[in-house]
Amino acid sequence: MSLWPKLKIRLQHMDSCNEFSHIPIGFSCDCAQDMPHALYLHIPFCAKRCSYCDFATWVAAQDDVIIATYVKSLVRSLHQLASGGLLSAIQTVYIGGGTPSLLGEKLVELVQEICYVCNPLELSCEANPESFSQKFAQNLASAGATRVSLGVQSLLDQELKALGRIHTAQTARTAIGYAKQAGLDVSADLMCGIPLQTLQSWEYSVKQLIASEVDHISIYPLMIEEDTLFWKQCQDGLLAWPDDDAQASMMHYAQQALQERGYSRYEVASYARIHKQCQHNLAYWSGVPYIALGTSGSAMLSRQAYEKFCELVPHMPLLDKTISRVRYTITSTRKQVAAAKSLAAMAYELEFLDEQQASAEDLMLAVRTSYGITPALYERSAKALGVQKLDRALAHAYELGLLQQLPQNQAAKQWWIPTQRGWLLGNKLYGILWGLAQRPVESVQIEA
What separation in angstroms does the CA of 151 have from each of 72, 188, 242? Predict the structure, then answer.
């Protein structure tokens, strides 16, 4: 089953910002680098599964033996990638989940191993407030972590309880303080349209989070996903489906409040203070290759990086000469990953993109950001897709009010960014750009 063209859009009501002083590598270079720029590691363990969560996570106690064996497997895979030259260009690392902070000192040790093999400029760890102590924050920073992303979601206890969260508002405030004291850049998530929430309570959470002076804030609307407790409750009439208009009003309030306090939107879901954008986050939208480890981890490799990966996993298929990009998702379960002795012992889903598909994908992902389609990306895409074909698609998006062109005095060549309507109707805009790919992406399942 193809990952494209349909993206799972977690946020659609946004507008653009006009700060282009720092353009990520994939938006500005003539061609994306060959080796992975970013590394993701997935930790699939939580103390409790939230009522809305459909991620690849399982409940486990901190001392569960599978956690230790899973981390050991990640470390083995790290060293394999390093020995194969696939970590030579890594600049950012993100450890997500699940709840990585549930690992405690095992997470600190994992961070140390990562820094040993690739020494990234930015290393982010996700954490939940209830498993984030002062000592833990200090140990993470000492090990080499530079950022922490805290799952706050709300700053009202009754709303947190309704979500199935196990921390309190005060625990979240305390965790933010610990992270700041340790010298970590701090990101925090808030969720709108949740049970018991009103516009007034949402305003309270936004104001309180701004007052905490975190560096980075992500705003998400509650999405009711299949196979979650909330899905069943909505189907049974025990819980109301989220109100799109109410969520749009809440996100519009957050947009204004954050921008007034010096936060700029740089990506469809994220606001940051100056120079505090998550560079790993931007790597996903800027067309640079990235690699992943752990169950459900997803990677995007250049042709050259894929060929190196095949040296580590010899049973991977050879590429047709037309393929320029390969995506993989690790489909092995947490138990299978924990038991695997090498990358070759895991299962994968592969997707193969030719030059036109890769260009259409880059365009589609770029308009999730405030940087949009830069002149460098326009030039690369025009070569792959044809100038007339690309210009027709951009003109169509312009006519629909989804894209706007920056004034010519700001760029010598074409530069397109999303409009307010483009953020609101993101799926429409993404569909127009992905349509340039012309044909479906081929995919294949690879067993261990």
Answer: 25, 6, 20
> 211-243 burial, b if ≥16 CB within 10 A, otherwise e?
ebebbbbbbbbbbbeeebebbeeeeeeebeebe
DSSP designation for 327: E
Residues 281 and 272: their CA atoms lie apart, in Å, by 12
Q: What is the distance between the alpha carbons of residues 158 and 202, in angstroms, rounded to a whole number?
A: 12
CA dist., res. 28 & res. 24, Å (int): 7
The amino acid occupying position 166 is I
* Distance separating alpha carbons of residues 91 and 119, to the nearest angstrom: 8
HSE-up of residue 323 (Cα within 13 Å, Cβ side) = 22
Q: Phi then psi for 156, rounded to 5 degrees?
A: -130, 130
Q: Which residues make Cβ contacts (< 8 Å) with residue 121, sequence separation at least 6?
A: 91, 92, 146, 279
Q: Give the pTM.
A: 0.91
306 Cβ contact list (under 8 Å, min separation 6): 316, 319, 326
Q: Tell me: the pLDDT tens digits for 55-70?
A: 889 999 999 999 999 9
| C-alpha span between 311 and 98 (Å, rounded) | 30
| Cis amide linkage into residue 98, ω under 30° from 0 | yes
Q: Could you tell me which residues come within 8 angstroms of residue 32 by beta carbon, excluding any fewer than 6 positions away?
A: 25, 26, 287, 288, 289, 302
- Distance from C-alpha of 217 to C-alpha of 128, rounded to nearest angstrom: 15
Residues 137, 55: Cα–Cα separation, whole Å: 25
| pLDDT band of 412, cuts 50, 70, 90 | low
pLDDT for res 21: 42
C-alpha span between 59 and 62 (Å, rounded): 10
pLDDT of 278-301, one tens digit each? 999 999 999 899 999 999 999 999
Give 44's Cβ-side CA count (13 Å radius): 23
Query: How many CB atoms sit inside 10 A of residue 59's CB?
Result: 11
Residues with Cβ < 8 Å from 8, sequence gap 6 or more?
A: none
Alpha helices of 277-354 — where are they, by DSSP H? Answer: 279-285, 303-312, 334-339
In this structure, what token pair is assigned to residue 410?
């700001």
Residue position matching structure tokens 């990086």? 305
Residue for token pair 């090990």: 143
d(CA 359, CA 382): 9
Assign residue 325 a region (left: φ > 0; alpha: ψ between -120 and 50; beta: otherwise). beta
